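Input record (Table S2, row 262):
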Amino acid sequence: MVAPILELKNVNKSFGPIEVLIDISLQVKAGEVLCLLGDNGAGKSTLIKIMSGVYIPTTGEILMDGNPVFLGSPRQASERGIATVHQFGGTFPLMSIGRGFFVGVEPTKGWGPFKVYDRKKANEIAVKAVRDFGITRIDDGDRLVGGLSGGERQSLAIARAVHFGARVLILDEPTAALGVKQASHVLRIVNEAKRRGLAVVFITHQVMHAMAVGDHFAVIIRGAIAADFKKGERTREEITDLMAGGETMAALEAEISANAIL
Ligand SMILES: Nc1ncnc2c1ncn2[C@@H]1O[C@H](COP(=O)(O)OP(=O)(O)OP(=O)(O)O)[C@@H](O)[C@H]1O
Ligand SMILES: [Mg+2]
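Output record (magnesium ion complex):
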């Protein structure tokens, strides 16, 4: 049995007296997509902040490849191969694709040419990395990141993480602000990252997007895992119900059937 790349064991997180996460245990393996579902304020972002070194759990353990690790900062997480892609794909709208691709990557060991920024080389590498992910509409590394569509920006951020050796890819609502076509583009790229053996943690409100890529699902309600299941074990309606805590949808259905009788 191969140990999961990333595992959380009995993780709790409190801010003062407020318990935001309660006894969270989950794992994600190489070549797998774990979807975290849950309503607003459920604790999803707090959970990924724990996975990416922004917050330290109050109690509980984080393991990588079966060994306990301490993720004391985003830098420590990223050095261990955990890459987090935030909504809108990062924050360098005024940079060129080539520049943005290499931002924050220290020009040490093996990055000789980048000690003096080599624009042509950087553009070549960046454009190739995104094209390898099937985004063939990007062919000029001098274009500004801000001029790309939302989906292209997300895709660029994912390609960048993979290029620099990420093993765990955390995506916080990457498709939330996208139209149907752009979202399906990002979902395709998530599948490609998975095919390349990354462990992907995918946060979304949209059940359809989760179902399109997920192997494992965890529904978080008020800081705790309310349901945990594999692909194919639940229908779309069941997942939607779970996310709403069962109550809202049942009430809505009752209302609809009451109206139908009238
Ligand atoms: N630093 C903090 N101090 C106190 N409470 C916090 C802190 N950060 C988050 N919370 C609370 O924890 C709960 C979970 O927040 P979180 O941002 O993780 O939710 P979420 O599932 O990502 O929601 P959304 O879908 O709206 O993004 C919320 O009630 C929030 O107010
Ligand atoms: Mg959030």
